[in-house]
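Morning run. Coffee first, then this:
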Amino acid sequence: MNGIEYVLPADIENRSFQIIASELDEKGIVLPADEKPVTMRVIHTTADFEYAETMCYSAGAVAAARSLLFEGADIVTDTNMAKAGINKKTLASYGGELHCFMADDDVAEEAHKRQVTRACISMERAAALNKKVIFAIGNAPTALISLYEMMEKGFYTPDFVIGVPVGFVNVVAAKELFLKSNVPYIINQGRKGGSGVAAAICNALLYGLTRREEV
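And here it is:
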């Protein structure tokens, strides 16, 4: 069939990344070396090259996140969809655990009682974990807002924030809070993002740990 490229299943991902790299070259886009594998995996997940322009990283963000993961940090997501997409085996091999409190019955009950979102309560539960935590937020801007408010009150400071919620209400403003903070972050500016993007960023960071050990 015309236009169909036959690629072995095991080679599809590599071929996809080759195409992404080629198209970035054609567009004249040069990504920083440390950020490149993360941004490229996001593009691979979304087929959207706009992320090459909108992904924002705090200074040394990729190295900081990988150090946390290497030392056994946990990951907290704001959706079970993001949780399902993250490589649990690789995370666990470094001593980390994956959490999502959004569907817990007691979280829903407390959110209803306090008239706040489940994301707010979930972030409070995460703050009570006795471990370093990377937050991977792909859906709920209120999760980012809650984390920021806890930080402002001196109650809790996140170790690292992946802020890529998607949508229209408070999404851009919630991301901007952390762009102006001292918390290490990977943020996608604008309305785009999602659970798949949050998971892709986490996986890119995790997959880089193997290369780190080989250095």
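The CA atoms of residues 135 and 204 lie 15 Å apart. Good start to the day.
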